[in-house]
């Protein structure tokens, strides 16, 4: 096998597809027996949409967006549409993102600036949740004939200089290159001995879709208080909570209905009652770390295996897809023999500084959010996580 990718999330799927298109023999090993149902990213940015467009996948993503917008539209309880931060959006203005809940209005941008002008037919991001994105990418990978071996955990690795011998729960695997796309607790990164320095978490957040007995007690959009913040919407039952009380006691414990309800009650100052969780809820922190290198011999890292940070701004998924697109053609070229192995040094040189910038950007948002408590405000925007 030319390349073994560890991790069947969006990053691993994109990378495997790019390698297959280059003619490389590639397989995916995934620890989970079934795809995760946990809620994660809620949208893709322009570079990710461009990547999908280049592979003919954008129409499928846009269909997902249409279905999402129908659900969001059915949830609207007010006639006007307010951005986070309390300021009213001007009629016809276009949301393009936010910084710590402060709206970024695309209509205030000078799009005649050549550095900002679109260079492709893709004119914006798309509201595509990670689960749906994984489904369409899995179908893409299947069409390319890439095997996905689920329920297989990596337990050891030995870089022999001309390949990597990988120990797994399904037996040994010999591969030319090994790429860890296996998340923030990457086994590949740990076994390769790659350091993961950074800053410890100071907050705990929750993301869930729940059945709510008394939703009228919650304000739409973001609401801030001295206890933290919460967001209700934009989909029915979708809640996000943020508490600046340090990391959770046990990050590995399943997220329960009671945990989400307690957090929501605490930050909202209400006695809101959740009756059921729809799907698996997610617990997250502002743990911010980056691998000391993205490449060590024939072992490489991409996505959360290379960098982790808070979900504010929705950069994690998109940053990882960018890693995969950058590494995919380079590793494919090396495997095919028309580029020297030295080309792979540009992967670390190009992607690690960008990852460091995103970590600083998300840390800055946390710093703003931890500042002077804001007057409770509410509003609508695209999901931040």
UniProtKB/TrEMBL annotation:
Domain FAD-binding: from-to ranges: 2-361
Keyword match Phosphoprotein: no
Superkingdom field: Bacteria
InterPro entries named in the record: FAD-bd, FAD/NAD-bd_sf, RIFMO-like
Positions of region (Disordered): 72-93
Keywords, ordered alphabetically: FAD, Flavoprotein
GO MF annotation terms: FAD binding; oxidoreductase activity, acting on paired donors, with incorporation or reduction of molecular oxygen, NAD(P)H as one donor, and incorporation of one atom of oxygen
Keyword Metal-binding among UniProt keywords: no
SUPFAM superfamilies: FAD/NAD(P)-binding domain
Entry cofactors: FAD
Record protein name field: FAD-binding domain-containing protein
Species annotation: Streptomyces antimycoticus
């Amino acid at each position: 096998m030319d390349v073994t990718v560890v991790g069947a999330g969006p990053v691993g799927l994109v990378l495997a597809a790019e390698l297959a298109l280059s003619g490389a023999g590639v397989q995916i090993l995934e620890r989970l027996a079934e795809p995760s149902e946990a809620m994660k990213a809620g949208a893709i940015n322009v570079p990710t949409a461009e990547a999908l467009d280049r592979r003919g996948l954008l129409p499928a993503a846009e269909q997902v967006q249409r279905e999402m917008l129908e659900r969001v539209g059915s949830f609207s309880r007010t006639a006007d549409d307010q951005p986070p931060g309390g300021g009213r959006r001007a009629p016809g203005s276009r949301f393009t993102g936010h910084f710590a809940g402060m709206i970024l209005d695309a209509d205030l941008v000078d799009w005649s600036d050549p550095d900002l002008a679109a260079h492709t037919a893709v004119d914006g991001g798309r509201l595509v949740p990670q689960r749906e994105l994984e489904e369409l990418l899995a179908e893409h990978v299947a069409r390319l004939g890439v095997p996905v071996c689920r329920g297989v955990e990596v337990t050891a690795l030995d870089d022999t200089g001309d390949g990597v011998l990988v120990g797994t729960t399904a037996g040994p695997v010999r591969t030319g290159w090994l790429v860890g796309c296996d998340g923030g607790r990457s086994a590949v990164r740990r076994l390769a001995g790659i350091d993961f320095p950074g800053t410890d978490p100071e907050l705990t957040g929750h993301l869930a879709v729940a059945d709510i007995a008394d939703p009228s007690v919650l304000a739409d959009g973001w609401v801030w208080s001295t206890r933290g913040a919460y967001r209700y919407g934009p989909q029915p039952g979708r809640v996000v909570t943020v508490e600046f009380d340090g990391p959770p006691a046990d990050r590995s414990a399943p997220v329960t209905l009671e945990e989400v309800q307690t957090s929501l009650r605490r930050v909202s100052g209400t006695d809101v009652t959740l009756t059921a969780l729809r799907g698996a809820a997610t617990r997250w922190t502002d743990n911010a770390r980056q691998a000391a290198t993205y490449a060590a011999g024939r072992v490489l890292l991409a996505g959360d295996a290379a960098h982790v940070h808070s979900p504010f701004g929705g950069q994690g998924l998109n940053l990882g897809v960018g890693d995969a697109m950058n590494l995919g053609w380079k590793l494919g070229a090396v495997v095919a023999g028309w580029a020297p192995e030295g080309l792979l040094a540009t992967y670390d040189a190009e992607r690690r500084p960008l990852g460091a910038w995103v970590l600083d950007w998300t840390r800055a948002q946390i710093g703003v959010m931890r500042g002077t408590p804001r007057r409770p405000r509410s509003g609508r925007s695209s999901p931040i996580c």
